[in-house]
Amino acid sequence: MSIPFRIDRAKQSFTGILSAIIFSLFFSSCTEDPGFVGKNLLPEGDNIHTFSDTVSVIKAWTVSSLPIITSTNSQLLIGSRYDSLFGYTKADFMVPLFPVSPKDPGTNISVDSIILEIAIDRHFGDSLTSHTFRVYELTDTISLDSTYLSNFIPEGHYRPVEIASKTIIGYTDTIKFKISESVFIDKFINSSREALKHDSLFRDKYKGLYVTTDRVTEKGSLLFVDSLLNNSGMHFYYQNDSSRTNGISNLVYRMGFIYAAAKVNMFKNEYAGYRAGENINNPESSDTLLFIAAMGSMDVRLNPQLEHLKSKAGKIVINKAELIIPTERSLSVSRSLFPPRLLLWNYNEVEGFDFLYDYSIDATQNRMVFNGIYEYFKKDRYIFNISRHVQAYIDGEIDNMELILRSTFSSQSVYRTILKTSDAIDDPMKLVIVYTEL
Questions:
Q1: Residues 14-55: tens digit of each pLDDT
Q2: Which of 22, 23, 249, 318 is most open to solvent, judged by the fewest CB atoms within 10 Å of its CB?
Q3: Looking at the domain 52-65+275-437, which fold is it?
Q4: pTM for the full model?
Q5: DSSP 349
Q6: Which of helix, strand or coil describes residue 407?
Q7: Neighbours of 391 (CB within 10 A)
Q8: End-to-end CA distance of the chain
Q9: Whether the Cβ atoms of residue 400 and residue 356 lie closer than 8 Å to each other
């Protein structure tokens, strides 16, 4: 419903009009309503009519996320977990190996041991979870020039023989594996000295590792691999002719996970039987709750109904359009898991997502005008300013108002939140528009 209010402005003789108004205020004994003082001096055609319109019909539903890019992740997730609201989530990863400091290994190499270390930064979930890790050798190169998505299928890209496995219980800073698989060990022994001295030749021999865990049966946890990957890698302890002659116990050749290298984090999500999955991917849903979860899990699609404004195309200017999205606090999701910011795009059936005009033209630091930041102190909500996008839709520059919401850092976090629809009884989602008639 449109609620009109009026702003009157003189287009000319501003100084004279202001003097007349001041004179009237101070010297007139007339009891006329002060709100109308001076209006008789303005031509009727000079009035500007501004309206406020609250759009309370916003079609919205939870959807499965489209695959997300994980090859540029600054940290990796591993493990699996059940959530009573959001369902089951599993994460595995693939990383290339690089020589930390390529060197000539010498002659007549014999390997004493090979130790793989994976440094864990923190965990999410049950700290007493038992995880069984399995490590495989990649047979294909992870290319820095390629983009890898969260739904990447590892089968066919690794040698299906474990080179190491280990079960851990609880949270630990570093997981250590002893590599005992003969083919992997022999590759190091039989490598040419030149291959271990030069980075490019090395990568022809060692493509990398695929690390996975067995599915947990209950609860579970997700582990964050050290974000800089400095403490993760593989140590070859060996001897050569020189070390034996000089009585040196062990030489070390180190292969590392390199932070800047391409990598792949694969995610699997299951919702059946959980609250978040009751109406997922159903645009006809009447659910009053919407679910967003990172790790390529769940997004929200929404479509504000603006047909009543389309008829005003070319006749109105959108001054402000605030999309207000409250969170649902009655369910047990900790605020610490709420995304610090939500991302909002225009939905494009062909290409997936398009940036909104408002996002593209926002030149402020961190795009603070466009917003989307979680407002803890303002009724637990997210707000987006989308006035230019609404104007473009009304004027026919774009042909749909369907939007999509996603968690920030979706490829490398466990953020999740529950939002209210426009049908919620208390504090519903809404789009508040202020516009001027031309």
A1: 344 334 433 343 433 334 443 344 445 545 555 678 899 999
A2: 249
A3: Jelly Rolls (2.60.120)
A4: 0.84
A5: T
A6: strand
A7: 22
A8: 19
A9: no
